[in-house]
Amino acid sequence: MRTGTHNITLEHVIDAPPAAVFDTYVRLGALWTTAIGARGGPAYHEINRFTAIDRPGHLAVESTLTMPDGAKLDREVDVTRTSMGGAKTRMSIVQMGFPSAESAEAFGAAFPGVFARLEQMAQARLARYRHPRGTAQ
After folding, report:
1. Alpha helices (H) in the chain, listed in sequence order
2. Which residues does residue 39 pair with via DSSP β-bridges, in sequence order?
3. Is residue 62 part of a domain?
4. What is the side-by-side strand order in the sheet with 44-54?
5. Which tens digit of pLDDT belongs to each residue from 20-59?
6. Domain presence at residue 63
7. pLDDT tier at 69 (50, 70, 90 boundaries)?
8. Model's pTM, two decimal places?
9. Total of domains in the chain
10. Domain contains 135
11. What is the 3-state composition of the chain as percent helix, strand, coil, each rounded to the nearest 5?
12. Per the domain annotation, does 137 fall within a domain?
């Protein structure tokens, strides 16, 4: 699927256990799409397909990103989550197939925000596990 030879690895420690992080990341169904872009600006469209799911530690995905100009970027993405003890998880994302080191670096620049959003979602899910609806907090 991928044609590029440059890869990027991104890591972040999330303040939630691996199962909560995994449940935040995985959605029902094997295929999902996203549209990414500034409000009112051109959108980047991404189609993703799970190729491996091993809860809670590993996901593999094939991804095609279509740029606003119509150019396409096919990537393979490998996601691992490792318990850091207690309620912390190291999340590592390796994306393979970028056409240049510069494109890999530019893509990776967005990931601090992605990790922050995943952490917020994992912590919200964890709070629901600890305090199901209708129970005292």
Report:
1. 18-25, 101-108, 111-130
2. none
3. yes
4. 6-14, 89-98, 72-83, 58-66, 44-54, 31-36
5. 777 666 654 567 788 877 788 888 899 988 888 888 788 8
6. yes
7. very high
8. 0.69
9. 1
10. no
11. 25, 40, 30
12. no
